[in-house]
Fold each of these.
Amino acid sequence: MNSTELFNLLALLKVDGVGDIVAKKLINHCGSAENVFLAKTNQLKSIDGIGDSLIKKLKDKTVFEKAEQEFQFIEKEKIKVLYYQNELYPERLKHCIDGPVLLFSSGNINLENRRVISIVGTREITSYGTNFCKKLLDDLAVFNPIIVSGFAYGVDIIAHQAAIEHNLQTIGVLAHGLNQIYPKTHKKYVAKMEENGGFLTEFWSNSNPEKENFVRRNRIVAGMSEATIVIESAEKGGSLITALMASDYNRDVFAVPGRTSDKFSQGCNDLIKTQRANLMTSAADLVYILNWELESKKDSCSKPIQKQLFVVLEDEEQKIYDYLQKNGKQLLDIIALECDFPIYKLSSILLNMELKGVIRPLPGKLFEAV
């Protein structure tokens, strides 16, 4: 995207009454933001939902003056701009009708890895939530997912830190412009975040972290991810909004259960009870539902993984391995039936066996011995 098109896009988004949905409609009809401003009145009137009031506002040249300051900031700070029609824009977010026309980014974000999951939850995370989050990313690290969260207190920052510890790319989606960091106490994490990942925002440099911005931010967290995981949440909260947005986008949602008496498990328990989220007790639940296949991490800094010559299997693992050796490829449900394991327990055992390199998952919930 060249400077002229970026400048016109910024100006278009400054037109009163033009949000992401209307902007996309205008751009798709006219071909570009610049063409929107050059279009004749009759051409604009032919677009469904575009009336005289909005057409009048599109003729207001002061929007270019308003766009100039942000354009200068982007140029000066070398901000990367992702346009919804470009390949660098998050692929899944392209399919969300209300996805931002522009995203501003910093750091070293690489979205070629299609395994993107978001982790959200309360800002008042408990030791239970902290331990679960760390164990979850410890188990998922071998799948090399991108971890997305909101860089806030609590679950967000724990997820980002755990991702950094495992050299996983992690992205913080901000509710303000890239000229500041909120909360300020998290500035110490910025450099590490930007080494392998970074920050995304739709907000301009004059935007402050206001309450309504966090709700708008949540649709990006939910929309760009393959699945959203709620670690802990009270009965009401921003993480529940994110989960419902993810569900509306037809994404998988997972919630970590807790005791009925725990304040910060009520939201998760309700999501599970109302069947708006899959129950998550371990990484195996996500791996099973999303049908992830194990691959070596593609990281030049990673040490080569040497296959073990001798693998020690637990009794339960040996029973499953012997069954697969004898019967070949089998469905998970059949393995559970024939080996007499409940599904929730079998999923965890199969993940451990996969990590040991003795079985591999196949499309259609099939597994085979290696």
Note: Confidence is low (pLDDT under 50) at residues 296-309.
Amino acid sequence: MITFDHTCKSYGGTSAITDLNLLIAQGELVVLLGPSGSGKSTALKMINRMVDHDGGRILLNGEEIYSFNVQDLRRRMGYAIQSVGLFPHWTVARNIATVPTLLGWEPARVQARVTELLQLLDMAPAQYASRYPHQLSGGQQQRVGVARALAADPDVLLMDEPFGALDPVTRASLQLELKRIHRATGKTIVLVTHDIDEALLLATRIVLLNQGRIAQVGTPLELLQQPASDFVADFIGRADVGLKQLSLRPVATSVQAVQGAAPTHVIADTATVREAISQMAALGVSVLGVCDAEGSLLGQVRAADLLEARHG
């Protein structure tokens, strides 16, 4: 899907990316993670030529990105950033419709796509389509930004610190929303963050960068359990590795039969143990029902069992 082949980038003689070799497969959610100055945003922006690489190659579906017209390339890639960048005097619907309209889609098709995306992002079209950005919360604006990035059904979604400016509650909500969208659409997503917990929650694979080079590539669990160096172990965090591993264990592995009355509150079987514990704490309960995608109750999980398994 996306291939970095000995890719390099320098600014004024200073190397930002050095000999980057990486294959991002169709349908992955790859997180570029690292400290400030590690080159993660540069790597992302080279994919859609917001930044031009000056050594090696970058391929999209086997074709060098310099072989594409730059506007055509960017229209094949949705792009969502921290500042959102919505047009303030355009409605939500018109903001989302920007790229499909530029591509010459029929108005009925554009309207249908806007409606589809607002529903996907849990924003009722009748309520939100005609609003303006200043009438939305920060989280709602970010959802519209994601919808706009997805509007033309791009091959790839690039996201540069998309939730960084949001409060923790809204950020957590949108992280879960992105996980759901990824499962629902199967899009290839490349996301930049410096937030380790965000990377562990979202990624199918993490690319940890340090000073423009790859320190380690692997699944979240591989980085937690098999750090390739002291830098990786320290960056991921030695002290709370056990807690972070809760982010990776599905709650479905701890489901038991319902005892007595069905729990009042439920969680999806795709949730993690950490999400279940967090939800219990927020609701002040010690038991949650677990439901499948159709809403059928599969059983329940208890806080005591989840916490005992963590220490086991």
Note: The CA atoms of residues 278 and 284 lie 10 Å apart.
Amino acid sequence: MVYLQYFYFQIYNNLKWLPFHHHWLDYYDIYKIVKDIDHLLLIDGALNAVELSELRKCRKINPSLKISLYLINSMEAQSPIMRKVRPKINKFKWDNIFTFDFNDAKKYNYTTLGFNYYSSLKVDSSKLSSKDVFFVGGLKGGRTELIYNMYNRLTSLGVKCDFFLMPIDNMDINHLPGACYSQRWRPYEEVLQHIQQSKCIIEIMQEGQSGATLRYFEAVSMNKKLLTNNPYIVNFPFYNPRWMKIFNTIEDIDIDWLVNEEPVDYKYNNEFSPKHLVDYILSI
């Protein structure tokens, strides 16, 4: 049996078959089942909340237990989560450290785990007005100026923009007229609602990041166009230059392509399901 701890909720079953069960548990409940599991997998958000002493206690309860870490943020990411996670990584003996980021895998000798995404949320976007593009993200990782320049250029050209911004590193920054600001992360259901009502998702990478973000997975699974500054996307599954465009500067952006409404179909059939992740974990 594999146990996966995702932030403050866990997804577990016999983990060979879908659907997974989602429910809220305190991470101390791990102690109740640790004798009965073979592998404990934490993502970086969970490590942010869990003390290393708790993981060591799990190993004392079950000496044969494997404990692995899955980094779904880049090591270079300038997020509050990673600022707390980075100092913990080398203070614990992990059985495996997995990452989604190809550069991190090479630099730190981590294992690239592949492409995993799961959302069972049923969203209702009927009350939202349609937009041409959608962006959601924190003003961090050296991308704030690009985000602002992107918004100003697109709106000046008549593109209907839907931007959700969180001023993490720039609390006193000037607010863009028409953009939505929040001091907290938006509920994911709300993000999906806005994606559904947009023609194209914008992905702007943080400095040093090369792996797939949620925006890539959302574009593929929800059949949306994707505008990104990640050149590595050409190596990702489902890359299609018809519906995925890479920009180096905002002047590169094809405005007609952005606003044109056309059917998008990546032929996605749950290839990113966590079932494949679990199958892999069980095989090692």
Note: Confidence is low (pLDDT under 50) at residues 1-27.
